[in-house]
User: Which sequence fits this backbone?
């Protein structure tokens, strides 16, 4: 690669990444998933996010928690935007535009209770992976946790030929051409090639399905996913071979659903897995059974199992808040291998308890139904699944909320001001969850309209409409993340705002976003 600026460290730097939020890095999620795995939840006072991308995640966590955050990303546009968010929220996080090499070799960094990297490991070269390994070795505290996500084998075996076909074509295009245009051309080439019905489709029948998915994905996501020089899925056992020598052990999944094996394995598969005593072997075989494509997980230096009494005490103190109306509840949800059902009776009991927009602990819910003979642990199990389904959310203590509310308010003020000039951020930070919540551009404009004193849904609609007209010079369309109908005069638009006031606003109030 002869243009070092475009491909620093053999990574695409001229196309920015998507503005996303990753709950997996939220200390509350880490602690809850440890607890549900029967492990003592870690204290996270100092945390580091390597390769923070656009920086929404690190800034939401820096403003929403009392944890002090540090992070880097060498894409200068990413850094500038992330730093603007940090300045707006007035947190004391340290963000730098350094490469992994420079950041990880700084001598002024503290030791960390948590080091997290999302969407990094599979897309960088060996040299950078070694730098990160050294960093973890030197900078992680004795009880420290590592969060890491990576493309996984065996599920991505049949994506290897796709990656190769795309990058072979891409690499032959002129270096000086625009990266996004080259991405588009390469995908068109892949489609033309597969239309020739080459023999490879017989060996990898999923290729056409994968192409169909790729065609729906945003180009700036695809540029980072498939068009870096490096794209390396790992088996879980390979990750264990890398992390074990650092004193790390697999602790908990980042996606809580992983713990509920009976929901995505058949009875025979489940029995087969349960007979395996070694936790690592269990992970290894589960991946083979479900043909896993992506892993996101926590590793810890000191595996500290809880006894039953400790577990019940800690889980009973977990605080919850509903984030959807009870009447939208669905029993069925998607797992790795198909649909599963959540226990309807207990789910409804939890949801009706939380239907008043108040925070309640698992113990509160248990005691309110003490005469129904439901075990506290069954309530905890169903609550975990409702969290996974995004019906309810974990919330932090009032003490923490009072310490960080002002920072969240600062950051949300920035996001709302930006909602006028751009619709690219579809999240706001909640002091209650200590992290990001999906709130699309139209919602942000409604909230802003209300702050500006507009009281009626018709007025919010007019405000949002005018902003969009001014911003784009055209009427609102169905862009990603927005749910705005496209007829200003139609009843549909007003209904949209009335429905939002009834079904969304109370939850945004409860999340302390509005
Ligand atoms: C796929 S993006 C993921 C971003 C973010 N973690 C997220 O999930 O939204 C990978 C990020 O790593 C950064 N990156 C890649 N190689 C790097 C390096 N050698 N030093 C610093 N940052 C790097 C890129 O600029 C990019 O923002």
Assistant:
């Amino acid at each position: 690669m002869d243009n070092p600026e475009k491909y620093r460290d053999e990574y695409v730097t001229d196309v920015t990444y998507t503005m996303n939020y990753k709950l997996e890095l939220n200390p509350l999620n880490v602690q809850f998933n440890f607890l549900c795995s029967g492990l003592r939840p870690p204290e996270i006072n100092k945390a580091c996010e390597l390769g923070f991308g656009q920086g929404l995640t690190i800034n939401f966590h820096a403003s929403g928690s009392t944890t002090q955050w540090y992070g880097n990303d060498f894409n200068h546009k990413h850094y500038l935007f992330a730093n603007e968010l940090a300045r707006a929220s007035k947190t004391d996080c340290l963000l730098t535009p350094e490469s992994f090499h420079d950041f990880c070799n700084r001598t002024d960094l503290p030791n960390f209770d948590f080091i997290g990297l999302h969407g990094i490991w599979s897309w960088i070269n060996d040299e950078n992976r070694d730098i990160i390994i050294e960093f973890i070795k030197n900078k992680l505290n004795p009880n420290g946790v590592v969060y890491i996500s990576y493309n996984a084998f065996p599920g991505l075996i049949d994506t290897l030929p796709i990656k190769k076909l795309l990058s072979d074509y891409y690499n032959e295009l002129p270096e000086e051409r625009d990266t996004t245009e080259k991405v588009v051309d390469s995908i068109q080439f892949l489609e033309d090639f597969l239309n020739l019905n080459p023999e490879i489709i017989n060996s990898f029948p999923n290729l056409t399905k994968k192409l169909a998915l790729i065609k729906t994905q945003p180009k700036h996501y695809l540029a980072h996913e498939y068009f870096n020089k490096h794209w390396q899925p790992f088996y879980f056992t390979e990750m264990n071979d890398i992390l074990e020598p650092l004193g790390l052990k697999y602790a908990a999944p980042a996606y809580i659903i992983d713990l509920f094996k009976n929901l995505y394995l058949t009875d025979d598969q489940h029995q087969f897995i349960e007979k395996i005593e070694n936790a690592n072997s269990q992970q290894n075989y589960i991946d083979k059974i479900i043909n896993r494509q992506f892993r996101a997980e926590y590793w810890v230096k000191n595996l500290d199992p809880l006894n039953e009494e400790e577990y019940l005490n800690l889980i009973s103190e977990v605080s919850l808040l509903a984030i959807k109306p009870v009447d939208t509840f669905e029993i069925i949800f998607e797992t790795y291998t198909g649909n599963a059902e959540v226990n309807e009776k207990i789910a409804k009991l939890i949801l009706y308890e939380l239907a008043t927009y108040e925070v309640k602990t698992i113990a509160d819910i248990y005691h309110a139904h003490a005469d129904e003979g439901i075990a506290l642990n069954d309530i905890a199990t169903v609550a975990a699944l409702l969290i996974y389904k995004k019906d309810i959310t974990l919330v932090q203590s009032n003490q923490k909320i009072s310490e960080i509310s002002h920072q969240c308010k600062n950051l949300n003020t920035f996001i709302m001001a930006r909602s006028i000039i751009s619709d690219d951020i579809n999240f706001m930070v909640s002091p209650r969850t200590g992290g990001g919540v999906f709130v699309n551009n139209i919602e942000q404009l409604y909230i802003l309209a209300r702050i500006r004193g507009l009281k009626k849904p018709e007025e919010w609609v007019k405000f949002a409409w005018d902003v969009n007209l001014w911003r784009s010079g055209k009427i609102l369309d169905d862009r990603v993340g927005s749910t705005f109908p496209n007829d200003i005069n139609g009843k549909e638009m007003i209904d949209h705002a009335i429905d939002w006031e009834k079904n969304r606003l109370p939850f945004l109030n409860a999340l302390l976003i509005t």
About this structure: Residues 9, 11, 17, 20, 22, 51-53, 72-75, 78, 99-100, 118-120, 123-124, 128, 224 surround S-adenosylmethionine (CB under 6 Å). The mean pLDDT is 93.
